[in-house]
Amino acid sequence: MGKVLNLEDLKEIKAKAVSLLATRGVCADPLVKVVNGKADVLICGGTGCVASSSRDVREALVTEIKKQGLQEEVRVILTGCHGFCAKGPLVVVYPQEILYCQVKVSDAPRIVSETIVNKQIIEDLIYKDPQSQEQFPVYHEIPFYRNQLRLSLRNCGLINPEDIREYIARNGYIALGTVLEQMKPQEVIEIIKDSGLRGRGGAGFTTGIKWEITQRSPAKPKYLVCNADEGDPGAFMDRSILEGDPHSVIEGMIIAGYAIGADAGYIYCRAEYPLAIQRIKIALSQAYEYGFLGKNILGSNFSFDIYLREGAGAFVCGEETALLASVEGRRGEPRPRPPFPSIAGLWSKPTNVNNVKTYGLVPQIILHGADWFRSFGTKNSPGTATFALTGKINNIGLIEVPMGITLREIIYDLGGGIPKGKAFKAVQTGGPLGGCLPTEALDTPVDFDSLVQAGATMGSGGMIVVDEDTCMVEFAKYFLTFASAESCGKCVPCRIGGRRLLEVLTRISNGEGKPEDLDEIEYISNNMKEASLCALGQLTPGPVMASLRFFRPEYEAHIYEKKCPAKVCKGLITYRVIEENCTGCMVCKRNCPANAISGEKREVHYIDPNICERCGICIEVCKFDAILIE
Amino acid sequence: MLEKATITIDGKKIQARYGQTVLQAARENGIYIPVLCDHPALPPEGACRICLVEIERQRTLQPACTFPVSEGLVIHTRSPKVIEARKFSLELLISDHPLDCMTCEATGNCLLQDLAYEYGITGDRFQGEKHQYPIDASNPFIVVDRNKCILCRRCVRACAYINGVEAISVFYRGFNAYIGFGADSTMQDSPCEFCGSCVEVCPTGALWPKMAFGRGRPYQLQKIQTVCTYCGVGCQIELQVRDNRIVNVFGVENAPVNHGFTCVKGRFGNDFVHHADRLTKPRVRKYLLESGKRDGKDRGEWVEVDWDTALEIVSRKLVETRDTYGSDATGVLTSAKCTNEENYLMNKLARQIIGTNNIDHCARL
Fold first, then answer.
1. Is the pTM value of this prediction over 0.80?
2. Long-range contacts of the stretch A125-128 (C-beta < 8 A, 24+)
3. What's the angle, vertex CA A357, arms to CA A279 and CA A439, rounded to 5?
4. Predicted confidence band of residue A494 (pLDDT cuts 50, 70, 90)
5. Structural domains of chain B, with CATH
6. Chain B residue with the nearest C-alpha to that of A314
7. SS3 call for B283
8. Mind giving me the DSSP string for A165-178?
9. What is the pLDDT of residue B364?
10. Average pLDDT score over residue span A228-257
11. Residue B187, pLDDT above cutoff 80
12. Of A68, A148, A211, A294, which is most buried, counting CB atoms within 10 Å of its CB?
């Protein structure tokens, strides 16, 4: 493949590439179904599905298709994340668009002979709604997908992320071609400003204004950085986009580079994302091959390079100044701002730092215009929000919804509610530095400002749901343990304050809490928030403050009554055998790792609270509900 | 860009300059803002949060040491919020600090102690885990006590920016972060050159000269400003002396030549001063005072004489050698410990009086 020299050539390439997606009926906007008797089998190649052996499923399908002599008509394609991770490995058969869940290697022959050859749906592999028991064979009709608006994720799970032609078939790089041939840098900035796009990394700063500041900053050269150091536990939005649609991010970066007048861009991706890194590398080499990167892009005077930098596992490197230090090869630690990176960033030169999702949205805003983007979401938070939905929720996975949707809609309509009929207790947004919101806040609209007003934060898109079995003290302690361990240790309030706060929480959850501890929590939290150097330190007390605000009685129960209402905190619970129920079957005794259970066969057993580790194994193995926690 | 910016600090309008930090502008106008990690010779770090001030329209408190001046800033340096935040940071630092000021070498010369005094911090606000680091006394010059370290990183910056060695850095993260040397080895096994710049800037007793241990409190020591004798650079040093013995050496902060820093020799190489082998008067060979003729190969014993006698003999022998064997029979080696002027005079003596170009200098050897 030689370099593409202008927009017209690119459009020709696209016209040819569209046939690659014909079977999938989604060639490009507008959606036109083209079915030509052939079939595409798409297998999710996101990290979650790969971990549950989707690669083996792919091998089995390829083997089976060869065995049945169908290799000419049927293509097997490993895609990026489909988002419905709870049901992985996922297989979608086109043109019928049938989604099969939790597919095993042994299912491959059935899928080929029944669905591909005989056009039959395999009942036991299709999605069944856990509440209504209704079956949904067609991919986009499943409630989890039906209620989504996929802009950032529009290509994820649909195209082969390792084939640039499939991206081009979806109007890929057309925005870049348009920008380079028809627009001045300032016009690009104006469109992004008009679209109201706000940074998807969490803080929600207006992207167009950031670009403009960087562009107007006099020093040269200028740089661009893509923050792909997604470190929140349980968050995988950026990973999924980089794994499923890396070209959209690269295209967005090149457009941003042109708009602000940058020479080079860096993608800073955490090393814990090997698949994303592999796909970025493939995508970058393809983009160079096609002439979308390098000298004189698409025959224009604009030249731009993108380099990949791998993070070494520090959460704090998601903070932009720490990230920049890490790219420069120094210890990943934040420095005080101002000056902001737009004025003095990489090697003290003007640097524009945006999140993966922010860059990923840029090509579409250019293609469809600012008004199109503003037609989604709310007035002050246009567009969509991408969340990694996880915790005590039925449909664990990746979702994209219009801003302004309520938490209730996300949790119950898309997420399918709480498993095992348990009651919802809280939802944590904004990751380990965010905050939790209680039932009363379920009707809060999800956008940058409403969430902050409600007491949480938008963050980059982690959403963790907890049910009635969760102790909010323990929950806050978990995030605080994480955040204080990830403190870089530079400023005093975060380095020592985080530890002292954790010590207070540990004391409370161990049943050693003192009445004055609640004031102590507030004193430490308020001062950490005011005095810490970067957002990590300022927001470390966030989960503690939010849970104290909404679940204060739970804290008080730990301190005054020495009770953990959710029966979680090990220092405040005892396991006891219910004598009437115990049959003396000895199962609990055999399974107890601490040898804390005594009792002979057919006699009531006894748990020694001094030896018991409170691991809960006995409850899990007891068939007679004979053990309780008090 | 505007040259001057009008800012308001504690209700007082002052003229500051663009490019200045709030701290610099305040200091120039006689407004006191306490600091801990900031040091005038080092780039600002913004780590200790002691210099936090309240700046209107800013979301959180800001460090005065890094915040750049701009037109219209309204700054409060002593608001209740500021005082509380400063106290908070001090309480935290002291909660992980050995409270052994009564035996600590730095007592009376410790910024943490001064700030605790200023803000009334007693050390019982927070109870929690304290670090127990082993003391690194692996080298002859500097004792490293990480338990007293407050991670202000002055040493890290001094090593990187003043000496250019980068032997000191921060290891690990969060509460477990500590100052380390080389690839986390002892100071002895690291690339450290023992210039002692880190000791010079350390605000506590975490880095302290080995020679000074147990030899006196700052107020018991006589401070004598002098010039280092080691080379012609002329660094100004302050000798801290007790009973006529050197206890400690510091650089003189505002000295035009060395700006408060020294090399390893100037700071630590002073044991010669009171050494038993040190010569304090000139000596000559006995035969030079008698016949002037040597008995075979034996050069005989040394005799202590006065300067005039010694110099007269040297002068006589130099003339004699020149006249008998020619100018080039003599060679002259001078010393880096002499001043430029002294070396210049030796040059003149060799070339003009003796008449030889055989002159060299130890710094070139």
1. yes
2. A125/A100, A125/A101, A126/A98, A126/A99, A126/A100, A126/A101, A127/A87, A127/A99, A127/A101
3. 125
4. very high
5. 4-78 (3.10.20.740), 215-278 (2.20.25.90), 305-364 (no CATH)
6. B173
7. strand
8. HHHHHTTTTHHHHH
9. 57
10. 94
11. yes
12. A211
Strand, helix or coil at B208?
strand
Got the DSSP string for B294-331? Answer: -BTTB---EEE--HHHHHHHHHHHHHHHHHHH-GGG--
d(CA B313, CA B303): 13
Handedness of CA A339, A345, A349, A355 (dihedral sign): negative
Distances (CA, A) of A469 to A324, A506, A572, B105: 41, 19, 15, 55
Query: Going from the N-terminus, what domains does chain A have, and what CATH number goes with each?
Result: 38-142 (3.40.30.10), 164-374 (3.40.50.11540), 384-561 (3.10.20.600), 574-629 (3.30.70.20)
| Distance between CA atoms of residues A410 and A427, nearest Å | 11
**Calpha distance B269→B165 (Å, rounded):** 20
Indicate the residue type of A544: V
Whether A248 contacts A366, CB under 8 Å: no
A263: left (phi over 0), alpha (psi -120 to 50) or beta: alpha
By the 8 A CB rule, do B12 and B31 touch?
A: yes
Q: Do B89 and A529 touch (CB under 8 A)?
A: no
Select the residue from B52, B76, B175, B179 to test the A interface by mutation, using most A Cβ atoms within 10 A.
Answer: B175
Query: What secondary structure letter does DSSP report for B101?
Result: T
| pLDDT exceeds cutoff 50 at A31 | no
| DSSP alpha helix (H) spans, A43-132 | 47-51, 54-67, 108-110
A402, β-bridge pairs: A384
d(CA A151, CA A281): 23
- Residues in B closer than 8 angstroms to A523, CB to CB, are 88
Name the residue among A391, A426, A431, A389 with its Cα closest to residue A536: A431
In the predicted model, is pLDDT for residue A293 greater than 70? yes
Judged by DSSP in three states, A406 sits in strand
Write out the two tokens for A8.
């017209």
What is the model's pLDDT at position B357? 96
Q: Which residues pair with A397 in a beta bridge?
A: A389
- Per-residue exposure over B138-149, b if at least 16 CB sit within 10 Å of its own CB, e if not: ebebbbbbbbbb
* Alpha-carbon gap, residue B199 to B168, rounded angstroms: 12
User: In this predicted structure, what is the pLDDT of residue A25?
Assistant: 65
Which structure tokens are listed for A80?
Answer: 């990026």
Cβ-based interface (< 8 Å): residues of B facing A: 45-49, 52, 60-63, 66-68, 81, 84-85, 88-89, 92-93, 95-96, 126, 128-129, 150-151, 153, 169-170, 172-177
Torsion angle (degrees, nearest 10) of CA B275, B281, B286, B292: 140
Judged on CB neighbours under 10 Å (0-12, 13-18, 19+), A423 is exposed
| B284 DSSP assignment | E
- Which of A331, A339, A487 minimises the CB distance to B174? A487
CA distance B170 to chain A (A): 8
Asked if residue A126 lies in contact with residue A136, where contact means CB atoms within 8 angstroms, the answer is yes
Strand ranges across the sheet with A351-355: A305-311, A264-270, A223-228, A351-355
Tokens 């939010």 belong to A546
CB contact under 8 Å between A490 and B47, yes or no, is yes
The residues with which A426 forms a beta bridge, in sequence order, are A438, A466
Cα angle for residues B240, B245, B250 (degrees, 5° grid) = 25
A331 and B170 within 8 Å at the Cβ level: the answer is yes
- B120–chain A nearest CA distance, Å: 18
Note whether A535 and A433 are within 8 A (CB).
yes
- Residues β-bridged to residue B360: B333
Between CA A152 and CA A160, with CA A156 as vertex, the angle to 5 degrees is 135
